[in-house]
Amino acid sequence: MMSPTRRTPARLRRFAVAGVALTALVLAGCGSSASEQPSAFVIVTAAQPPSFSYETSATGYEAGEFWANTGATLIRNPYAAGEGEMSASQDLFSFEPLLAERYEVSDDRLTYTFYLDPDAMSVAGNPVTAEDVLFSIKRKFETPTSVVPFVSAPALTDPDTQVSVIDESTVSITISDPGYGFTLLSMLANQPYNIYDSTVLIEHATEDDPYAVTWSETNASYGFGAYELTDYTPGEQMVYTANPGYVLGEPDITTIVQRVVPDAGQRANLVRSGDAQIATQLRPADQIDLADSGAAQIFTVPTNAFVYIPLLTTAAPFDDPEVRRAFSLAIPYGDIIDDVYRGRLDPVDSILSDAAPGFDGEGLAAPEHDPVEAQEILDAAGYTEPVEFTLTVNSAVPDLEETAVLIQSAAADAGFSVTVDSVSSAVFQEGLASKSFQASMGRDYAIVQSPPYVLSLFYTPGSPLNWPNWEDAAFSDALAAGNAVGDPLTPEAGQWWNEAQRVLQTELPTVYVGYVQPLNAFGTDVGGYVFRTDNVIDYSQLTLESE
User: Fold this and answer.
1) pLDDT for 517-530, tens place per residue?
2) Closest-CA residue to 240 (of 402, 461, 22, 531)
3) Domain architecture of the chain: domains with CATH
4) Strand, coil or helix: what is 79?
5) What angle do CA 513, 318, 417 make, to 5 degrees?
6) CB contact burial 323-351 (16+ within 10 A = b; e otherwise)
7) Within 10 A of 387 (CB to CB), how many other CB atoms are there?
8) Distance (Å, rounded) from C-alpha 312 to C-alpha 321?
9) pTM over 0.90
């Protein structure tokens, strides 16, 4: 039996942050000077989560940061020091216990048994139990709006037969093929498999809502994470308070105030002045200016986040593959990299990590800008007038608005007439869910970096995350063949993942504009940043050095 046990995480030097009354935090505004001790650790962001229920709304930066800090999983990818100029990041190919004190893998590699840590407490003060694990996974699969069933197949498809409570503190999960093991562990280590306090949720369950999904949309105190959301003012701020029962110990920064500041320039200025410790979703130009002036830190990471444009393949004009191919050639990739992202964007020749064992990049290539060829493709396909469509962007993400304007201008020279529609974060998420956008631009990523998961995430037929509403037999066949190999990290499986990517690059349901570095800025006295594949900030690792 293999039996991984908990490793003691490396702790950076920590400094206490004095807390003050929440009322004072609201009234204080932005009046302190950079040399004064701040009233609280302040993070300024563009928006708030549309829901506190993962099963209701699983997308969006602010939502991801909420779930990462209020939730906890059975296991996690350990944090590792960065190499060269890279920041610290996750080790994607190993796992360590979190809510589970240890876990064992059966000799046939089909059964994973998790022994829960009796000291792990929810924010409500309840110890984690096997019933919590079963309840959480069943909720994820039985809530109609949940994306978890779509992203979990084929490793986990039926909690009733695959998840078993052994005793109060022991739970097992079985899989049908040992090759699914790495993907299973990768999923269990990430946000889709946060474990919930079933005692709290059952108190608020109803006959029509046995998992209290509706209650949890507006109530957040049911997690086992490092923080609890203790104050929430819609449209203004959220206050996080450290969970004293967190399995890795109560974070030293005990109060974090996340304030909504819609204007990206103002968010940057708040970090510059010392009135905020972190600003998220910045314009790259502001971010680099902060770093060059010595007013803030920015980080280089092994990023998995991409700027991308899903194209609705079930309606005109992008139901025509030729139009999709022409549009991919109409995008001014070089100008976007230089003018918008100031070099913090790299071309995408593969949506899979080339660091993964068994990776095969043969024949894969990043898209290129060629307006002449784009016009020729449209002419050959019989389009005699400019192809009109609307490109929708989230107004809370300024770099995407700037990118959309560049695309609008360049595409006019390639036979397209593009209308840019900038909408609020809430409207943007609603439109994605309803698949009502002809084309939309986002920054996104696959939290789980197992190759079959990454390839399936946005392209599983019927999935609410299949923004292009795209199905392709050759793509599905390649995924099935790769899964049939067993271990997804072997060269044999890698050939099939390569085949699937070639289909994506030929059929182009999505145009991948580039891999983007995190667009956050950190005060010069802030430490402890670790890059995660969910691209959000782990508050429990942050440090603040006093003057």
Assistant:
1) 999 999 999 999 99
2) 22
3) 17-59+225-302+518-547 (3.40.190.10), 72-224 (3.90.76.10), 306-516 (3.10.105.10)
4) strand
5) 75
6) bbbbbbbbbbbeebbeebbbebbeebbbb
7) 22
8) 11
9) no
